[in-house]
Structures are given as C-alpha cells and as structure tokens.
Sequence to fold (208 residues):
Amino acid sequence: MIVSPSLLAADFSRLGEETEKVRSADWLHLDVMDGVFVPNISFGPAVIKSIRPESKLVFDVHLMVERPLGMIKAIAEAGADIIAVHAECKDDLGALIREIKACGKLPAIALKPATEVSKIAKYLPELYMAMVMTVEPGFGGQEMLTDKLYKVREIKKLREDILVELDGGVNDDTLSLAGASGADVLVAGTAIFKAENPEEEIRLFAQL
Ligand code: DX5
Ligand code: ZN
Fold:
C-alpha cells in the first residue's frame, strides 16, 4: 500500500519538522482549500514551495478549489508531482487534465462522497489516479463514510491499472476496511500526525 500522510493534520507552526516526521512514507498529501469549494482555507503554492526542499516524498496535491485552472501552473512550479482536481469544480475537467499534463505533472480527479464514478468514467483513460473521498472535503479528523468504499472497485472495473486513492477517516479502526477496499493509496492525516509514533503508524498502513 502506498501511504500518503496528509499535512493538514500537522502543526503548521513547525512544518519542516512535521515533514521530517513522515519521511518513511511514500507520498505527502497536500490539501489546498480555497474557502469557496469547501468552508475552510488551508495553504497554497507558497507553502508547498517552502516545504519542497525539506522532503524527498512524492508531492500528492489535492485541490479543493472551485476554479483550479488558473492555479495549476503555480502548484506545478511549487513542486507538485501529482495534481488532483475535483470532479465537482467549475472548470472543464478535460481542460484541467490537459493543463496538468502540459505542466509535466500527473493528473488525478477526486470525487466528493455524493458524486458517482460515472461522472469521471470518460476521463479515466487519461488519469494517473482517481481519488475516492470518504469524508466531506474541508476538514481532517472526520469519521469515514464506509458506504462510499464501493467506488474503488467501480473505478477498477472501468480501468484495472489506474491508481485509486482513499481520502478521509483512515485510522486504526478503519484500517482493515480501507485495506480490503481495493485502494492502492491511503491518505491519513490525524491517524499519522497525531500518533505517538508516526513511523509505526505508517508501517502499519504500508503493510496492508
Ligand atoms: C479533507 C482532506 C483530507 C484530510 C484527511 O478535506 O482532503 O486529506 O486531511 O484527514 P483525516 O485523515 O484526518 O481524515
Ligand atoms: Zn485530501
């Protein structure tokens, strides 16, 4: 299992040290929020750029942004490797995928809990990854909506070799469900950053 700790649960006053804490993971999940698409604001390209030299992990950027098109270039230049936009955003998904690829980055699309897989079916051949959200986007530390896990297999049925990432409420209690869902990548914020031993937690998820 690929493990992508979400920096949203880190102590923002010490981002360098927090990034160091999760160095044994594979990816680093970076939640960008605009206060419009979701009722919260997190950080943007400037913060991503400043932590880029602190980490060797793959930067897995999740844009919870209503109009991401104008932001892709800055996110790419800040050091993103994978850029996920939301299926429900207001920009054209085809144009977003083209822009992400033009910036030399790997495109992904994220689904809010209420959005069905059919909405992104035609884009799957062009994507590096699809993201299934198991909480309403906006905040960390919520409980996993386990009735959304079926989407992982639905995506795999349409395209077997695409990566599927699960985001939201992955912790020690939901670990076995997440592992059995068919997902390739697990995002975990609270469970890793608030753990006494984040490295141990990463190892636990990675074994799935
Ligand atoms: C929610 C974010 C998630 C969040 C996950 O809007 O997209 O990535 O950080 O946090 P936990 O793991 O605490 O549910
Ligand atoms: Zn996220």
Summary: The beta strands are 2-5, 27-33, 58-64, 82-86, 106-111, 129-133, 163-167, 185-188.
